Amino acid sequence: MIIEKLAYFQYPFVRYALIVGVLIALCSSLLGVTLVLKRFSFIGDGLSHVAFGAMAIAAVLKLTNNMPLVLVITIISAILLLRTGSNAKIKGDAAVAMISVGALAIGYLLMNIFAKSSNLSGDVCTTLFGSTSILTLKKTEVTLCIVLSALVIAAFVFFYNKIFAVTFDENFALATGVKTGVYNLMIAVIIAVIIVLAMNLVGSLLISALVIFPALSAMRVFKNFKSVTICSAVLSVFCTAAGIIVSVIAGTPVGSTIVAADIIAFVIFAAIGGFSGGRK
Amino acid sequence: MALLTCQNLSLGYEGNTILSGLNFDVEPGDYLCIVGENGSGKSTLMKTILGLQPPLSGKILTDGGLKINEIGYLPQQTDIQRDFPASVWEIVLSGCQGERGIKPFYSKENKNLARLNLEKMAITPLEKRCYRELSGGQQQRVLLARALCAAKKMILLDEPVAGLDPNVTAQMYSLIESLNKVDKITVIMISHDIDAALKYANKILHIGKTVFFGPANEYKTASGFFTDKKGGCES
Predict the structure, then answer these.
(1) How many contacts (CB atoms, under 8 Å) link A and B?
(2) What is the pLDDT of residue A80?
(3) ipTM over 0.85 threshold
(4) Which domains does chain A have, with CATH numbers?
């Protein structure tokens, strides 16, 4: 029976899903460590709602290719959010919550007023939870995803030491001559790109899980930045691959299954951390 | 020639002036202590010197070829650092980031410098330990070692002994003194501890309602400040 199910993997769309899923998981977990430590865990959630709102606008404008518009709006929001981080009148968490809820409401409102399909709640549900869109990827989308992921990973490796310096102590970095503004901007752009990519995989509501869980799991066990980053990347890739395979075999929703795998991994890592006295 | 000169400096946030008309200068090799009541603008002054926030008016001149990436900085600890998963080595090495510019990885010289500063602070055995599991005094040494990686000529310390016990405080002070005397690094330190300031510093800058700037031995005799200070000082 399982052998029969495994035959699914000779279909290109299943392989596409696996490639795209693994790449998105890798990218989001790399930046996840930085975001969790900067107290921006919820930015994934907030930005994905912005992307949802942008998709609604694209739908209203009847754009055939909504990717550029969604990407631009999300990048601008990410820059505004991360920029206000340190000394704004509205602090990081409140700003994220505000944009998140606002974009979601406006997006739903627009879709409602200008609805073109009869199955509105179905459409909304699909955008939020991802459902099966990862299994309907076209070859061009897969190529785009591979290129963007490669760029994200290259940027992360190249700027790894700078990202560490900016995350650990932004004031010190700035005071000693590091151009923190540029690197914060870069982090914001990268996270926006990852989120727009990830919406295809798990949908907007579950993106946060991809950003937060691997980083938090890794931080339970490992105690330096490099090991945490590597562990989080490996864990995220493993959980996503496992989640996709299980969902194909068992016929469960892809996004939810991946997040379930992440939760199980977190519980295991928390237990290991507890036993070895990893976290004090 | 003065390393750093502040002319008619006004400090504050968004039009809310904390301090105005401040004049002082720092010569190479100086050990300057900045004292004053809470809220008198000591940390703001330090951030302004470091370029973290612009002065409301006035000028900060750096002469004698002092560049921004030749100044080390020991900030007060932030919340983020208290649960940050980073090893001592990673943190100390990150002090070299300022002079890397766009170059992505650390050079051999950077690593040697980091190793040297670990030794200076006597924390080489802690190299692989996790920062958040260290004691307060050890954490301050790590941050000081990091600041030293950036400090070619000058180091700015924002309350380096806050929250440390008397023994560790004395150790910190003697470490800072040896940086000043042996390594010839110019020190600017914010402190609440007037006795230590008078003991180690050669110049005192007192800011607040009244301003004093001059040699440490004159601060004692300058009318009002010393006794005033004793009463108004909180830690």
Answers:
(1) 102
(2) 82
(3) no
(4) 2-275 (1.10.3470.10)
